[in-house]
Design a protein that fits this description.
The structure is a single chain. The model has no long low-confidence stretch (mean pLDDT about 95). The protein has helices at about 1-30, 55-70, 80-90, 105-115, 130-135, 150-155, 160-165, 180-185, 210-215, 235-250, 265-270, 300-305, 325-330, 345-350, 365-370, 375-390, 395-405; strands at about 45-50, 75-80, 95-100, 120, 140-145, 170-175, 190-195, 225-230, 250-260, 275-280, 290, 310, 335, 355. The protein has a seven-stranded parallel beta sheet with strand order 3-2-1-4-5-6-7, sandwiched between helices. Strands 10-11-9-8-12-13-14 form a seven-stranded parallel beta sheet, sandwiched between helices. It folds into two domains: about 15-200 and about 390-405, Rossmann fold; about 210-390, Rossmann fold. By secondary structure, it is an alpha/beta fold.
C-alpha cells in the first residue's frame, strides 16, 4: 500500500510541476532546443529504443542495424540533444526524437501513438512512469546492455518497492557484466542475464588510413597523437607537456577532439598562441601542428589515422570515455586513472596489455616511451582488436533474447 501511495505521489508531483511551470519551462527549454520533450507526437513503430546519450547510441549501432536488416521498424528516443543528433546521423531514415519527460500523461499519449510491440531500454534508464505506462499498455520491456554503478544502485534501493509495482511488463534484463547482474538483482526480482557489452560489437566504417592522412595533409613520417573526447582541463594538461613532447618527438602532430562542441571556443583560447587549425576551416597543404576537431562524427576517422590515441574524460572526475573505438582501428591507447564509466572495457584491454593507464605526472614519459617503441604500439593495437573479436558474441545473444519477446 505504501509503495502505491509513493507511486501516486510521484505521478501527481510530476503532473503538478508540468502544468504549473509549463510556460516558464517551455521558454527555458526553447533556449536549449529541448521543447520536443514536452510533447508526445509520434508515428508508429514496432520497436522503441530508449537511450540516454551519444555513447549509448554508438554502443547500440550494430544492434539497430541488425534489427532493421530483419525487417523491424524502429523508433529511437534519446535524453540528450547530442544523442539525438548522433542517432539522426547514423539512421536518417528512422524516427528519432527526444524522449518525452517522465510525466504519466505524456508517456501514455506517446505510447498510444507509437504503438510499439516492444520497448528496449539501454543501460540505466529506469523511469517509473515510462515503465508504468508500458505496463498499462501491456507492452513488453527489455533492458539491454544494462549496467548500473554502485552509486546509482544506492539511489535506486530506496525506491525498490515502487519499482516492483511498475515493472510487471519487464521481461528481462540483459546485463553487461556479472557485477551488473548482482547489482540489478538487488533492485528487481526479474530474469537477469550476463550477455556481455554491446560496445564490443562495433560496426565502424573501414577507413583507408594512409589516404585519410594524406587528404588531411599529414606526411608519412608524422607522429599523430590524438586526444579524443577531451574534457575540461585535459587540453591544458596536454599543452603543459607539449614543449617536452616536441623536443623528443620532432615530427609530432596533435589532433584534439573535445567531447562537447560547445567547448570549442574555450579550447581555441588555449591554443591561440600556437599553430593550429579548425577542422572545418582546414587549408590545403601540410597539416598544422595542432588540428582542433569542431564538427561531430569525425572521431572514428581521426582515431583511424593516429599513431597513438589518448581517450579523454579519464584525467579528471568524468569517468572516462569509450576506449573501444581506437581499439577497433588497432591503435595503442592511453587513458587516465578515472575510467569508472567504462571499467569492463578497460579491464578487458588491461588483461590483454592493450592499454596504458597514465597520470598527469607520467603522461609525457608514457607518450615518449610509446613513440620510441613502434613494435610495442603495434602489439598493443593488435591486442586491442582481439578484445573486440573475443567479445563479439554480445550482439547475437542480445538478438536471441529480443526475438523471444517479438
Amino acid at each position: 500500500m505504501l509503495n502505491w501511495l509513493l507511486l501516486r505521489f510521484y505521478q501527481l508531483l510530476c503532473e503538478l510541476v508540468y502544468f504549473c511551470a509549463y510556460p516558464l519551462l517551455w521558454i527555458f527549454l526553447k533556449g536549449k532546443n529541448y521543447t520536443e520533450a514536452l510533447n508526445a507526437r509520434s508515428q508508429t513503430a514496432d520497436i522503441l529504443i530508449h537511450a540516454a546519450s551519444l555513447g549509448e547510441i554508438n554502443a547500440l549501432c550494430a544492434l539497430i542495424k541488425r534489427l532493421l536488416a530483419e525487417g523491424h521498424s524502429v523508433a529511437i528516443n534519446t535524453i540528450t540533444v547530442t544523442g539525438k543528433k548522433r542517432a539522426q546521423e547514423l539512421f536518417p531514415q528512422l524516427q528519432v526524437r527526444l524522449a518525452p519527460f517522465d510525466i504519466l500523461h505524456l508517456k501514455q499519449q506517446y505510447l498510444k501513438q507509437l504503438k510499439p510491440k516492444l520497448i528496449l531500454i539501454a543501460e540505466t534508464e529506469i523511469w517509473p512512469n515510462m515503465l508504468y505506462a508500458a505496463q498499462n499498455a501491456e507492452i513488453p520491456v527489455l533492458f539491454i546492455n544494462a549496467r548500473i554503478s554502485e552509486k546509482s544502485l544506492k539511489a535506486y534501493l530506496p525506491i525498490k518497492g515502487l519499482l516492483s509495482i511498475v515493472s510487471n511488463s519487464v521481461k528481462g534484463i540483459m546485463a553487461q557484466s556479472q557485477a551488473d547482474v548482482g547489482r540489478f538483482s538487488r533492485i528487481f526480482d526479474l530474469p537477469i542475464k550476463n550477455l556481455g557489452n554491446l560496445k564490443y560489437a562495433l560496426e565502424l566504417p573501414i577507413i583507408e588510413s594512409e589516404k585519410q592522412r594524406a587528404d588531411l595533409g599529414y606526411a608519412k613520417n608524422d607522429f599523430i597523437l590524438v586526444w579524443g573526447s577531451s574534457r575540461p582541463k585535459e587540453e591544458a594538461l596536454l599543452l603543459k607537456v607539449l614543449p617536452e613532447l616536441q623536443r623528443k618527438i620532432p615530427e609530432l602532430k596533435l589532433i584534439i577532439a573535445p567531447r562537447h562542441p560547445k567547448r570549442i571556443c574555450e579550447v581555441k583560447e588555449l591554443l591561440k598562441d600556437l599553430n593550429y587549425q579548425l577542422y572545418s576551416q582546414r587549408k590545403a597543404g601540410a597539416a598544422p601542428d595542432i588540428l582542433l576537431i569542431d564538427v561531430l562524427g569525425r572521431l572514428n576517422a581521426i582515431y583511424a589515422i593516429s599513431d597513438l590515441s589518448i581517450v579523454g574524460g579519464s584525467f579528471g572526475d568524468f569517468g572516462g570515455h569509450n576506449p573501444l573505438e581506437p581499439a577497433f582501428y588497432q591503435k595503442a591507447i592511453i587513458m587516465g586513472g578515472d575510467y569508472s564509466s567504462c571499467k569492463d572495457s578497460v579491464r578487458s584491454l588491461l588483461q590483454r596489455e592493450a592499454i596504458l593507464i597514465s597520470g598527469s605526472d607520467t603522461l609525457a614519459g608514457d607518450i615518449i616511451k610509446l613513440y620510441l617503441n613502434p613494435a610495442l604500439r603495434q602489439k598493443m593495437g593488435e591486442n586491442a582488436k582481439k578484445v573486440l573479436t573475443e567479445n563479439a558474441a554480445a550482439l547475437s545473444l542480445h538478438l536471441m533474447e529480443i526475438e523471444k519477446c517479438i
